[in-house]
Amino acid sequence: MVLTVDHLGDGRVAEWRLAPAGVERDVREDYRPTLFVGDSVDDLYGRAGGPDPTPPDRDGLSDALRELRSFLDGQAAVADLGVESHRQTFRTAARPLLRVDAASVDAVRTVAKRVRRFDRPDAYTCYDVDLTRELRYCLDTGVPAGPDRSVRDVRTMCLTLPRHASGVEALPRLSVDGDPVGSSPGEVVAGVRAALAERDPDVLVVSTADVVPLLFEAAGAADVDLELGRRPGYTKLAGESTYTSYGRVGHSPARYAVPGRVLVDESNSFFHRESGLAGCLNLVSRSGLPLQELGWASIGRVLTAIQIREARRRDVRVPWRAWRPELFTPASTLDDADRGGTTLAPDVGVHEDVHELDFASLYPNVIRTRNVSPETVRCGCCDTDDVPGLGYSICDRDGYLPDVLGPLIDARSEIKAALADADGDERERLEAASSAIKWILVSCFGYQGFSNAKFGRIECHEAINAFARELLFDAKAALEDAGWRVLHGIVDSLWVTPAEGRAQRPLPAVADEISRETGVELEYECAFDWTAFCPTRDSESGALTRYFGKRRGEEYPETGLGGAIKTRGIEGRQRSTAAWVEAVQRAALRAFDETRSPEAVCDALRRRLRDLRAGEVDPADLVVDTRVSKSVEDYAAATLTVAALKRARIEGVEIAPGQSVRYTVVDADARGAARVRLAFEDGDRYDAEWYEDAAVRAVESVLSPVGWRETDIRRYLADVRDETLAGY
């Protein structure tokens, strides 16, 4: 098992492993990454059903592949050529493929591009091309990914630089495990060196990867040798970039590696942010994706690594730029198929005695129990009508995707069961593992419709949705037959309350029956003393994902509402909401729970507004955190975000699209950069009127289920006098 892998060039690769006293380093001298080339498969999923073509020569290669072999032979990027038989798809038998041993990792893409240019773009299919460097090495050599924690625990060290701090002059603000290490760049370099020597970490967790080049720049200026890794130097793996995903602009920072240590960038690590190092290590063991790469990997990349492992187990090679045309579908079927999960319009208002039921891992369990997989949907060998409403067939042969997800589903169920009796460090470890697995399961279905998914397919995505819709409607009908009224439903969750004038069968018994009939467990999530469903901002129709409710039997913890009130979609759940506005909403929810009185809620708001107008609110609690979608020059309207971007530029801080800007509003009616102050700037001014408007909107979310809107709140605030001593 390896902690990390360093590519040294010229075919040499260093493997770093945990050892009782530190680490061990072994160098492989002759590593040659391998890719394969095959004749293009007419039908990626093998539905044509015809026999494999008879090989025209003794080594099994087709004429086209022999011509390609002659073309590649002798090229500098090619170290060796051979023939091996492997399966090109999950539905085809093994066929002779051209094996190409590349001269280096970087030469793999060079070879693949030359293959595509050699003939028509669709003449050949390349396999195992765009694997990440460390994952490729582990797959090619059979070396297990992940540190061997039976030897000793993984040691970590954190290097933290405040957000938006940039340049070598900002290094004195760097901290090591929360402690400052110097008042000048040179002192900081010396402090980091001393900490590394003392702690000898295996994993460096940095708040931003920019710390790496900044420290080396400062070391060079001070003429000091610095080794962030266990050998000199560092490698830049990728530059920063901006991307768009599902209409949302994101930013990917530059990536770096240091020899012999894993580098995790908190600003670019979804899994570290969601589940910590323990969750990351758990996913390393499940996916086979090395920790260095899992640190920056997306959910889809980790899922792909798991799929690749399963494909390798079945001797299926991983296609590069796979072409997956949709099969012909009538327009009427397209209209039915192009739908997502079902959401029932909520019954706006406050409801007593509400119960929530959820299908456990609905989409993954649909995949598993219905054998939904890219090669099983509309397989061509089965003439059945299996997918409700669409008429798609599902093959009788076991699909690969259920085998990918099955172990994850079982593992999460076992972890959830173990959590009931766990506490302390064991509970933290289990929660981290559960969180990491949850995100893979949440995304597995959507990834089937992603155009760049290695083994995805849109018909598979459509079939999963169709089965899920049927399950929700069947559950709704069963609950209503058992005397319950369904108030709301979202894809895999249902909220019910006793139907008036009817006897109710116990919910656990009904849920058990639905679970047995559907093959997917319907869990009784919790009971609410009351639940409020909000209308939309501009109508009385129910907002599909904005609601809140008081969990039965739970009290308010000292830190606020905590788990006592579950909220979804309202301001307190939005990352851009200032902490003070969130606190105002929590106070409003508490008052609403205790009194159900709009007037009492407005009184709680009035007390908070009094502090705001008196200048007694800490500006740090008024910081707005907004994600930037484009460069400052590309915005047409002069919004507060634009003002913050202009101010950041004045301060020498460049914020790229996809990154966040944090600011306090000081004068919303001013012009340009004067409207805001950035979060790291000193100052105690703020625009009380702007924050009052934000607080009123947050309270409106609490009162809208009982019919009070912003005008009603403002009218009450204007009509009621403050009779307390503080009012005089």
Automatic annotation (TrEMBL):
Residues 336-484 form the DNA-directed DNA polymerase family B multifunctional domain. The keyword Nucleotidyltransferase applies. It is an enzyme of class 2 (transferase). It comes from Halorubrum miltondacostae. Gene3D superfamilies: DNA polymerase family B, C-terminal domain, Helix hairpin bin, Palm domain of DNA polymerase. PANTHER family: DNA POLYMERASE CATALYTIC SUBUNIT, DNA POLYMERASE DELTA CATALYTIC SUBUNIT. It catalyses: DNA(n) + a 2'-deoxyribonucleoside 5'-triphosphate = DNA(n+1) + diphosphate. Its EC number is 2.7.7.7. This is DNA-directed DNA polymerase.
